[in-house]
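New to this. Explain the following:
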Amino acid sequence: MPKPEIAFAQHVMPLPTGTVNTKAGPVLSAGDSVKITVHGRGAHGSMPHLSVDPVVLAASIVLRLQTIVSRETDPGEFAVVTVGASNSGSKSNIIPDRAELLLNLRTYNMGVRDRIIASIERIVRGECEAAGSPKEPTFEYYDQFPLTDNDAEANEAVTTAFADYFDDGVVQPASPATASEDFSEIPDAFGVPYVYWMVGCADADRYREAEKAGTINSDIPANHAPNFAPVIDPTLELATKAQVVAALSRLGKK
């Protein structure tokens, strides 16, 4: 595969249709998922003194993890730590011997990401020790996505091309999204710049009404929601033109 000079990508977002949204720097967050298994000692529910209860241990960990963002992260930095699942046991009168937590992290800064991962492992190990866990916890990292960080110069060139081609008001500044994407792995592997922009796909009138009422989060379906339905016209035409304009902004220099 020949080395590209630059890479482009776009994605629909629940923003007003008829808009193309660009931004230099972080535009999509890094994303990491982790499965944590903590170990206890099983026993009958009538004899809890013979156990090391992993359900209580997991609950303590979940509560303590909330302090990573609220107490360990600078308020000016973005970070999300979500415990999406906590699974342990199968009977009301049996204390199980292990518990499993599924976590998801989102960050815009790789230094913050590394610190949060270190904090998660510190907290989990500390709570396990405090509970008298008979075995070390295990950490399995998966579904890891890199930060999407637009090259400033390349983004400026594409934004200028969009502004020159489209009518006033079409090109809008984007805000960083907390979604994650693996697109940047290809240009990063080649060491070339890239630009990732967003195309609005929500009904513009409905969006502005929701914006005025402060109900965007509840009234405008997000990507992958069961009722997410991009407005085809003019979204499809605008997205196609954006791809062509971006390509020509580079090819036109040849």
